[in-house]
Amino acid sequence: MRNFDFAPLYRSAIGFDRLAQLFDDAQRNDAAPSYPPYNIELIAEDKYSITMAVAGFDRSEIEIESERDTLKIVGHRHKDEIQKNYLHRGIASRDFEHRFRLADHVKVVTASMNNGLLTIELVREVPEAYKPRRIQIDGDNLQLVQSQAA
After folding, report:
1. CATH 2.60.40.790 in the chain, residues?
2. Given this model, what pLDDT does residue 32 score?
3. pLDDT tens, position by position, for the chain (150 residues)?
4. What is 74-89 written as a DSSP string?
5. In 10 A of CB 48, how many CB atoms?
6. Where are the beta strands (DSSP E) in the chain?
């Protein structure tokens, strides 16, 4: 494994310490969970969808929590009271926990479950205060003008 030195980033950029921390975390956590399988899809600009195959789970057995920059999905199966004698068991029934790192201003819009697929819709809504703006120089006064670039 190759280690990266982020010291030059700290010297020449302001506010990117969080980005460097994300890289450090990614290097340490190479063993990302693979169960249950999931897709992340770009629906449109600033709209995303996570689809997770949760066959055998009931809605009451899945918890979705969004806090700051993390989306956490936890599946906890209720134990069957009746012991079953499987000849072949191909449908997994183990508990799981997935954490997704969300970019700034990304929030969960909806979550639905249909035919064993959990679908979570996300959208990035950048507040007006964070959008680019053009600064026009006018004598001694500075006037802020909304950027015409999209």
Report:
1. 34-146
2. 61
3. 556 565 555 555 545 555 555 566 655 555 566 789 999 999 888 899 999 999 889 999 999 999 888 899 999 987 766 778 888 888 877 899 999 888 888 889 999 999 999 999 999 888 877 778 888 887 655 455 554 444
4. EE-PPPPSS----S--
5. 20
6. 38-44, 47-53, 62-67, 70-75, 96-101, 106-114, 117-124, 133-138, 141-146
The identity of residue 127, as a single letter, is: P
Residue type, 22: L
CA distance 23 to 92: 32
pLDDT of residue 149: 47
CA distance 26 to 101: 11
Using left for φ > 0, alpha for ψ between -120 and 50, and beta otherwise, residue 102 falls in beta
Q: Does domain 34-146 have CATH number 2.60.40.790?
A: yes
Residue 117 phi, psi (nearest 5): -115, 125
CA quadruple 49, 107, 44, 30: dihedral sign: negative
Identify the CA nearest to 66 among candidates 75, 74, 58.
Answer: 74
